[in-house]
Amino acid sequence: MGHGCCPSSSSSSNSRLDSTSSDSTLISPQKNFFALKLRKRSNSFEMETMKGLFNPTLTPQQQMRRLRHECRYADGQIQGVIKSSTSPYVERRQFRRPCRYAIACCSTVTAIGRDAAPTATAQVERSVVRLGLPSKGRMAEETLNLLKSCQLTVRQLNPRQYTADIPLLPNLEVWFQRPKDIVRKLQSGDLDLGIVGYDTVSEYGQGNEDLVIVHDALEYGACRLALAIPKEGIFENINSIDELSRMTKWTAERPLRVVTGFTYLGPKFLKEKGLKHVAITTADGALESYPAMGTADAIVDLVSSGTTLRENNLKEVEGGTVLQSQAVFVASKRSLSSREGVLEITHEMLERLEAHLSATGEIMVTANMRGNSAEEVAERVLSQTSLSGLQGPTVSPVYCLRDGKVKVDYYAINIVVPQKTLYKSIQQLRSIGGSGVLVSKLTYIFDEETPRWRKLLSQLGM
């Protein structure tokens, strides 16, 4: 026997899983669906992903358990949730081959009797907040490290699954996705928050007003999207985008051939720079090889250090930078305004990110110093250029017991200094009588309410 929720056409000619079934229940789907085919061989299963939204590396038992209890988390707005074999969205039927069965789930399903007319699909509102994170590569690793540094450790019970959580944010689901899919799903409403590169937001968001940048400088993933041309040949004396646009070689019959993976930002930038005769070719990787092969005249691609360009005899040109990019925290304005819990989680994440990034590269220095008063000690500290701190030093008395009396001979100084000037700061403390110097790293520096939060509220009209 098999359990399934069968996808069918929305037209009147709905299909059945098995036309020979005598008691099948029709399911009318909307939007997307996924299907898994399981074949039993002895005591093991062999699985074939037909339309995969689930990870094919999971065991069939894990797939079945996840299908029955978690299909509401699949791609799209799942309107029917399979909770047990008695669910109205489950169909029991005999298959032609006794040991084969199929499982399918629709994005939107409505149970329909054999002779009944289709009814309106039920709407199930999602209550959890969804955060999209990059699934692979350096960006994924650095994103997880940043969140961990903010005490927002992502807990992934199974490294092969695409879902996780953050224990400190109990109403939050983490979804590992390709960066471009994070932006697309923010726009479709399947995700509420995301961390991706600004270049990805710009390319796939295409100016969508529903996308709002919550934090625009997470300080990793830095790169630039730039135009590059060969160093030699007809481009030897071309060093700026203006010179490139004034070349008379480019005509309607012989346009400038540009290869790029950024099919929105690339053409838009070239048009704005006055390049009229341009032919765009789309490619995903190894763009630097195209000019050498003679299949392109220029490339528009992401550049970090520029080493790859130089090693492939390419050069950037003045004015040829499309945009500067780094990791950003982005959200759906619609979700921030209407979905319960999104604004509160966004506020906490923003506060933690801001405070941690403010503390990055800063060190807390504590030292003891003899003095007649706190004011005298503070005056000596402020006379040193490296000891100004955030707003100034904190000076407090150090009490000691001498001859049966409590006296103050020393004062403790607490001051925040940049890590790169630590040694210079310690030397200056010693020069004014500091001793017993302690150094500790900072996790957070919480300031007054962040300007980014006020800006976000303003964008939301709050």
Automatic annotation (TrEMBL):
Q: Which CDD domains match?
A: PBP2_HisGL3 (cd13593)
Going by the UniProt record, its keywords in alphabetical order are: Amino-acid biosynthesis, Chloroplast, Glycosyltransferase, Histidine biosynthesis, Plastid, Transferase, Transit peptide
UniProt-recorded name of the protein: ATP phosphoribosyltransferase
Quote the InterPro entries the UniProt record gives.
ATP-PRT_HisG_long (IPR020621), ATP_PRibTrfase_cat (IPR013820), ATP_PRibTrfase_CS (IPR018198), ATP_PRibTrfase_HisG (IPR001348), HisG_C (IPR013115), N-reg_PII-like_a/b (IPR011322), N-reg_PII/ATP_PRibTrfase_C (IPR015867)
The UniProt record lists the Histidine biosynthesis HisG C-terminal domain at 359-443
Q: Give the family, as the similarity comment puts it.
A: Belongs to the ATP phosphoribosyltransferase family. Long subfamily.
Taxonomically, the superkingdom here is: Eukaryota
Per its UniProt record, what PANTHER family does this chain match?
ATP PHOSPHORIBOSYLTRANSFERASE, ATP PHOSPHORIBOSYLTRANSFERASE ATP-PRTASE
Q: Which residues form the ATP phosphoribosyltransferase catalytic domain?
A: 178-353
Pathway annotation from the record: Amino-acid biosynthesis; L-histidine biosynthesis; L-histidine from 5-phospho-alpha-D-ribose 1-diphosphate: step 1/9
Native source species = Rhynchospora pubera
